């Protein structure tokens, strides 16, 4: 999709869905400290349908905009601002993804609840950060509430629920 179509598409989405920040509040934690299952809000599912973002669509994301191109990086429990390196459907590179990090389990868990295209209103989404081969696994020297991971980039994938 041409970059000039993104503002129009975002406007259509905003007309179809009342945009609001979806929070991660109320997520149950498993015994190891990782987050339990969570449904994707209907507003986010509707926005993703309008944007033609399908389950499994993916891209590359800088996990923490404050630690771009750094290795290793330290992630903290709580909110995170990430940035797309490549387009994700109609969302262009430099789109900010807002979500939450959990460091309690053996793997870092990052769930995204909102996308913010530059100069547009934020919109709700559901996506997760992932890497294969245990690369979002915490390094042993990670302190409680933090996770040291090897790379600043990961894959980001659209989901319809969090497991």
TrEMBL record:
Signal sequence interval, chain numbering: 1-24
Superkingdom as given in the UniProt entry: Bacteria
Alphabetic keyword roster: Signal
Name recorded for this polypeptide: Serine/threonine protein kinase
Organism whose genome encodes this protein: Archangium violaceum Cb vi76
């Amino acid at each position: 999709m041409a970059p000039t179509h993104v503002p129009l598409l975002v406007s259509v989405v905003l007309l179809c869905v009342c945009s609001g920040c979806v929070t991660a509040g109320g997520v149950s934690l498993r015994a190891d400290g990782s987050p339990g299952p969570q449904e994707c809000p209907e507003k986010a599912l509707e926005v993703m349908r309008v944007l033609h973002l399908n389950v499994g669509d993916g891209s590359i994301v800088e996990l923490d905009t404050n630690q771009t191109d750094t290795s290793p990086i330290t992630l903290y429990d709580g909110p995170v601002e990430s940035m797309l390196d490549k387009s994700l459907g109609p969302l262009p590179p430099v789109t900010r993804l807002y979500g939450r990090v959990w460091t309690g389990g053996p793997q870092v868990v990052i769930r995204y609840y909102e996308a913010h295209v530059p100069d547009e209103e934020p919109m709700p989404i559901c996506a997760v950060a992932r890497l294969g081969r245990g690369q979002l696994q915490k390094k042993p020297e990670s302190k409680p509430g933090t996770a040291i991971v090897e790379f600043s980039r990961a894959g980001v994938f659209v989901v319809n629920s969090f497991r």
